[in-house]
Amino acid sequence: MTNAFTMAGETALISGGGTGLGLGIAQCFVQAGAQVVLVGRRSHVLAESAASLGSAAIWETHDVRESERTDELIRRVVDRAGPITVLVNNAGIHVKKAAYELSVDEFTGVLQTHLVGAFALTRAVLPAMMERRHGSIIFTASMASLIGLPLVSAYSAAKAGYLGLVRSLAAEASPRGVRVNAIAPGWIQSEMLRCSMENDPARSAKVLGRTPMNRFGEAEDVGWAATYLCSPAAKFVTGVVLPVDGGASIGF
Question: Which pairing describes strands 241-244 and 86-89: parallel, antiparallel, or unpaired?
Answer without folding.
Answer: unpaired
